[in-house]
Amino acid sequence: MGTAEIIDGKAFAAGLRERIGAAVGGLKAKYGTVPGLAVVLVGEDPASQVYVRNKGKQTLESGMASFEHKLDASTSEETLLKLIADLNADPAVDGILVQLPLPDHIDSQKVLDAIDPEKDVDGFHVVNAGRLATGGDALVPCTPLGCLLLLRDRLGSLSGKHAVVVGRSNIVGKPMAALLLRESCTVTVTHSRTADLPGECRRADILVAAVGRPEMVKGDWIKPGATVIDVGINRVDAPEKGDGKTKLVGDVDFASASDVAGAITPVPGGVGPMTIACLLRNTVEAACRRRG
Ligand code: GUN
Question: Is residue 153 part of a domain?
Answer without folding.
Answer: yes
